[in-house]
Amino acid sequence: MKLSVIVPVYNQAADDKLKWCLDSLVSQTLPKDQYEIIAIDDCSTDNSFKIMQEYERSNSSFFHAIHSETNHHQGGAKNIGLAIAKGEWIGFIDADDWITPDFYERLLRKAEETGADMVGCDYHLTPEHSDKIGKVVHNNNDAQTGILDREKYKKLILDPGSLVVKIYKRDIILKGTSGKIFPEDIFYEDNAVANTWMLRAEHFEYIPEPMYYYYQHDASTVHTISRKNLEDRKVAGRLLLMEAMKQGYLEDFRPEIEFKYTVLFYINTLFSAMPRSQHIRGCYSFSRDLAKEMKRTFPNFQNNIYYKQRIGEEEKKLISMQMKSHLLFYIYYRMLWAYRDLRKKINR
């Protein structure tokens, strides 16, 4: 078996979202005996699993519809898929996204031509179900490609790109593991393991074309802010750091890991929680405790070279204020954005 494609599914039946995804998978130009589709229903409350079973009946030689008895989020569904995958290569796709008909054929061909053990491409954002090209996002860049050395590993840690827009040689994911690969019961599960995969790869190649349709809608995880999402970001940040320690690459790539942790655990979480419009219960104590943990974990993070280069001046000013006085930061932030919101209303 050349390739296993793993599809976590949860409540994607509406508006034919799941069908767009599965249609694009069963229509791949790869010979049907060279790949398998493993779709895992994560306790959907709609008829997603029924749709999956219909595809399995029509494509029984290479399509597997599996129902999980317990909801463990995408990490749990991916672990189920990995446990039964037979492919030499592994790919993932979100159940509300879709791909070009030659997506996997071209990625595999690139691997065969170059000897790469990890291959990716660009994607584009689309708000509609169509074949139109939306806003193109360059998932990686040429400076990260080829035989991987220390500098290229640094670039991949800092800007790994999306997990679903790549294929991975099986050993990159499963090497040295006997249990679950992904953390379960949280969002942002990819963040905990992505660095390890980057550092296990020896040769990365990249096709600078948008062959993956990334569906953007208001209900997607990236647009949903809740206390659960915020707590999961913190957990993912801690797991990212624990994984670096466990796998022994923290000291080799400390500035890069420190920066990735800072952005995931602290900066993105802080500025998602703070807007009054998000109505995060206990926002004051939540953001205070967040800053305390950040300071304990990496007390000198504001001196990180990537932090200085990549974080905006306003964000750095606000973070510096919080590190000195959370009360002052909180009052200043809320007053600042109340003023800006008022200006917007006046100028409408």
Architecture overview:
This protein is globular. The longest helix has 22 residues. Helix content is 48%, strand content 16%. The chain is of the alpha/beta class and 348 residues long. It contains 13 helices and 10 strands. Strands 1, 2, 3, 4, 5, 6, 7, 8, 9 and 10 form a 10-stranded mixed β-sheet that branches.
Outline the low-pLDDT stretches: none
Percent of residues in helical segments?
40-55%
Shape: globular
Query: Could you give the order of the helices and strands?
Result: EHEHEHEEHEEEHEHHEHHHHHH
Mean pLDDT: 94
**In percent terms, what proportion of residues is strand?**
15-25%
Amino-to-carboxy terminus distance: 59 Å
**Using only CA atoms, what is the Rg?**
21 Å
- Give the beta-strand count: 10
Give the structural class.
alpha/beta
Per DSSP, the total helix count is: 13
Q: What is the subunit organization of this protein?
A: single chain
Most strands sheet: 10 strands, mixed
Short summary of the structure?
The chain is an alpha/beta fold. Helices cover 48% and strands 16% of the residues. Strands 1, 2, 3, 4, 5, 6, 7, 8, 9 and 10 form a ten-stranded mixed sheet that branches.
